[in-house]
Amino acid sequence: MENLSKLLESFASLLWPLSFVAILVYFRSSIASVIESAKGRKFTLKVAGNELTMEQVTEQQRHIITDLQEKIASLEEGLERLQSGASPESDVRDDGKIDVSKLKILWVDDNPKNNSFLVASLGELGVDVHIAKSTTEGIQLFNSIKYDRVISDMGRPEGGQAGIDLTKLIRESGSDVPVYIYCGKWAASNFKESALAAGVTGLTSSGTSLLKMLRLNRANKQSKTDA
After folding, report:
1. What is the DSSP letter of 93?
2. What are residue 224's DSSP bridge partners?
3. 55 FRET partner, CA 20 to 30 A, in 95, 104, 166, 193?
4. CATH number of the domain where residue 110 is located
5. CA 116 distance to own-chain centroid
6. At what angle do helices 135-144 and 162-172 cross, to 10 degrees?
7. Pfam families, per this entry (predicted)?
8. Counted domains in the chain
9. In a domain, 134, yes or no
10. Does 157 reside within a domain?
């Protein structure tokens, strides 16, 4: 009797899962249709009473982030000019700075998705950014196109100091094009000396600082590091 009771309990515990599976099988065509419809549906979000698609939300967020980055960079520049005794409102062209909208930049990173917002910000300013995912691909592009700036991450599958290795190859070619390494805080701190010794112009873990570095004076005589 005890065994029969346990058997009934076991059967009861299986009844709900079996019923659920039966329902899925019976309505499988309808469920498949709903899933397929959801794939093509554009989800929306209400903001300030307006219904926006996720693409529109993302685009507006990107514009806000770009604006904040630009304002922070401008504030930092103004502070630096005040500290040097110059007027914070002086025309940047008088300080020998280039028109950023005419820049052509090579960005080497094995995971370019990490830089999507920064690349979009540069593109919005009119900067032409070319992407390479390895040192080999980067050097090939560098040798075929004249770039005004080069940006690289530090570590890639090809090596933990791939950014420095890339810089060495660029310097060995005789080019003095400014090279910036955009990496994590640990790498920016621990590889600072070897990076500058290899000819890196600037090293930073801050996207805002990177945007500011790209607008340094034409000569780029003074290297800057922000860890």
Report:
1. G
2. 202
3. 104
4. 3.40.50.2300
5. 4
6. 30
7. Response_reg (PF00072)
8. 1
9. yes
10. yes
